[in-house]
Amino acid sequence: MMSKTADVFEALSRGGFICSNAVTASDRYLFQYVEEHEEQLAETFSEIGYRLEAGNGFYYFSREKEDQQKKENKIVRALRWLDILAFFTTYRKDLCRGARLSPHDIAGQIDINSSLKDQLAALQRGAGKKNYAEQLDALFSELKREGFIELENEAGQIWKILDAWDYMEQMVMAVSITDDEEEAVE
User: Fold this and answer.
1) Which of 6, 104, 123, 174 is most open to solvent, judged by the fewest CB atoms within 10 Å of its CB?
2) How far, in Å, CA of 186 to CA of 177, rounded?
């Protein structure tokens, strides 16, 4: 049990997710392990200041106590995710967990959809990427680092949206609700 607990800690302590619909069997097994031992793991991680959180098909860590700067950084990330979600929704309105994406297909749509082109340019502003392929590669790499997508088919460059995508959507909604509440007060 201890080696799997260490694997869980390693995956989650860097801000990652453990998803039920992960591409690799070992990652799906890790999700099952957490699901089966959730109570014991939550207690263990609580002792070192982490809270094991369960989402809809995924697990992640939150901190018992976070300073103001970390909270502000999360808001900045959520605002970035809002722009990312807007981009992908413009590309395909029915995108959700489990869906497959291809940068090649998106690049084809950019040529005929000026809104998609403008949104990608805004997302990559200042990144120095010249063509759509480079811009999309950078975007997909960012989403992979964040734990929202995984490369499912390297030859075809097919990416799978993981269950953690739901976390991104929830965070964006939380920021949107907070903004709406503040406007109502003013």
Assistant:
1) 6
2) 15
